Amino acid sequence: xxxxxxxCCSCKIIISEKRxxxxxxxxxxxxxxxxxxxxxxxxxxxxxxxxxKDIVGIYDMQRVRKMVAGERTDxxxxxxxxxAVLDTGxxxxxxxxxxxxxxxxxxxxxxxxxxxxxxxxxxxxxxCGSGRLSxxxxxxxxxxxxxxxxxxxxRNGDGSTEAMLEGLEWVLRLRREYDIRIVNISVGIGxxxxxxxxxxxxxxxxxxxxxxxxVVCAAGNKGxxxxxxxxxxxxxxxxVGCYDGSFALGNPHRCELYSGRGVAGSLIRKPDLVAxxxxxxxxxxxxxxxxxxGGQAYTAKSGTSMATPIVSGAAALAFQKDPDMSxxxxxxxxxxxxxxxxxxxxxxxxxxxxVERLLS
Length: 360
Known about the structure:
- The chain is an alpha/beta fold.
- It has helices at 61-67, 119-128, 161-178, 195-210, 304-321, 327-336, 345-348, 355-359, and strands spanning 7-8, 29-31, 40-41, 47-48, 82-87, 100-105, 146-151, 158-159, 180-185, 187-189, 214-218, 238-242, 273-275, 280-283, 298-301.
- β3 (40-41) and β4 form a beta hairpin.
- α2 packs parallel to α5 (304-321) and α3 runs parallel beside α4.
């Protein structure tokens, strides 16, 4: 079995103690996703939960846009901006048609685009799905942007530090060819037992940042313990936690209850900001397939993985409006324009993403 170390940050893949048997020597990197969310099937065919009631309207991306003041973007849609996504891959989906310009598999080494987990496809849909199959209802944050997708996680959302390093190096090589402005990493790590690999990971992300790329990472789903924030990226990157306000208050698995938190009183304040992350509806995998897993046009997932592309999509709109803006300035604008929620710094950072202020 391939050595593990990294994982994704969202809500349909199990993260359990059983995974530790794969982790005796190296920490795994994992998509930040939690399982066990109570689900009900809505009339729209989307699995979601809200106080035990099926209320279709609040599950669309319009609910997200309203929360982050992103209903009006003055015609901005991310056109001309390229975002790299390092995740479980991307499956063909009508809402994502024409969006991807490059794909590479660092797990199975296959030569065709695919996603055997669904996590990466969901993240890409939040970023730039057109909403074609839903008459725009589940449209992503920046439907005009282009994608460079690297598969670094397997079908279980697990991956190795080596695959992550390869993916980051690949993005560095492609940055000029595709003018990559943002890297979305909806991936979390805990404490890597091998300090050298953690150092290499941070060095590689620092190199990305120094080339002018905005790196946006998930805070992880190991909260609410102090200091539970994911170790991906360090101080330079934009780290995104969860906040859902009054939405899903009856849901014991709502994202903000387990969103990774920083260290109170630390000179490095993390997360940088928060965004909605509970029951986010986006593209499902396997649309049109006649066999195997999948087949849902849309599905709901929860986690800091889902909050992260909301911020990445907003940043793409900001870069479209001001193409000469640096990654550092974009980071500061994301922080300084956020809505202060009055919560502890190690929970909310600077506050809730505010797209209207970001673009003003």
